[in-house]
Design brief:
Chain A: This is Formate hydrogenlyase. The structure holds two protein chains of two kinds. By secondary structure, chain A is mainly α. Chain A has one domain (2-308). Chain A contains eleven helices and no strands. The longest helix of chain A is centred in the first third of the chain and has 32 residues, at 2-33. Chain A is globular, with a radius of gyration of 19 Å. Chain B is an all-alpha fold. Chain B has one domain (3-210). Helix content of chain B is 77%, strand content 0%. Chain B has helices at residues 3-22, 26-51, 54-82, 94-108, 114-117, 124-143, 147-168, 174-202. Chain B is globular, with a radius of gyration of 18 Å. The relative contact order of chain B is 0.15. Classes of the chains: A mainly alpha, B mainly alpha.
Chain lengths: 309, 215
Amino acid sequence: MEIDIIVWILQIILVPVTAPLCVGIIRKIKAKLQNRRGAGIFQPYRDLWKLFHKDEVISKDASWIFRCAPYIVFTVTIVVGASIPLFASYSDVTGSGNLLVIIYTLAIGTFFLALAGIDIGGAFGGFGSSREMTMAALAEGGFIFSLLTVGIISGSTDLFAISQNGLIQQGYLLPSTLAFLGLCIVLLAETARFPFDNPATHLELTMIHEAMILEYSGKKLALMEWASANKLLIFIALASNLFFPFGLAQHADSGAVLVALAVFAVKTIIFCLVIALLESFIAKFRFFRLPDLLMIAFIFNVVAIILIH
Amino acid sequence: MSTLFLQFLLQIIFLTIVFLHITKKNLDAIFAYGIQSLAILILLINSFFETGDISLLFIALLVCIVKVILAPGFFAQLIKKNELIFSASTYLNMPLTLVVLATLTAMAHSYRFSPITNIIPANETLLSLALSTMFLSLFLIVNRKGALSQIIGILSLENSIVAFAIFAGLEQSLGLQIGILFDISIWLIIATVFISMIYKQFGSLDVTDMKKLKE
């Protein structure tokens, strides 16, 4: 019983607690690749702490949408983080581990983020929201089809049930590979990483995500940044635990849970390493080339579904 | 070798052809072709271990020399010499190209081609995939404007046919295989020389620029 409560609590707090660390690790690896020392891996926590203790400046034109959006976006990531398999494939805390529920709950966050961007009427927020919605509309197809592929293979739309099956062991290597590649492209698009967006710049020609949260400061900016980190970890968890479900705890046992947490940490670090390498070795694409890349993700998944037949 | 591993090799061939459609850089295309040929080489070595036929080992050795080493080497030198880093564009844009890829793959897996893919019922899935690699290679030849990409498309088609033949259990005599490989190596040399001459004359390898012959 005690172990169930611990797993339940862990499932809820794991994403918000460890997500800033992922961002810190990616930044550290990128710094090392650029021959810089870089900030420590815990710097995102310090940044959040600093922002939570700062005063806010809110435009007089801001409506309730601008004020509420950070709470909605952050809450969405917490709910989704608690509803996906992280370290145990049996611990569906919220009972909402259905793939369509997850996809559209995440879409609510994106929707309010874009609304908040245009709410103040600033030029940057407007074009940021416009770009974000273009990307989100194209990425969503790839995202749905990617999870649908693993759903069809597993015969279930429940993410916890999917994570209990090994896709490769079932003889679906090529469809799984294609769906995984598609999800990786969507991961980069949805989390505003290279080659879709540059998370380290505020250059007006390139920014997408940063443009929408440009008007935020203090606590609300902290929530937005935290939600962004949560989203990154959510996508990493989806990619790693649906396609490489080894190491997940299958039953309530303290040893199995500890091993599962360690395996999840290793898988997350590998994904962070790959993202950092990608960001160091490829340039950001022109905005008009991005639909092609998202189309590739979509078609990969369509081909994967055809191959399952 | 297990069926899963053979399946994996065929999937590598399929993925490299998809990559050939997506990539814009000639060097990446050559690298992908090299990987594809390596997969064919491993398939042939597997056939040798299964049948014990020494002629298959000889063919594998020739494939290694011609397709894995010589062909990518020739093309890499050509690119280096003429600074052909980026390939010519495609006739269809990327989204349409991808839609056609999905359609061709679906077509190869449809029941209309079951007389072909049912040659060996146990290998039906693999044969469907091999057939789709043939279709995708044909489409690569048709869709690309760059002469070098078209040549890689032809070579890729040849690899797809070999893969199909292996999984269909079709007899491949030593003489025929040596003939094909000899053909390819001579064709490679001629193509390389021709491409160099075309590039000197037209300043481009885009076939749409060559509609009018220069004096």
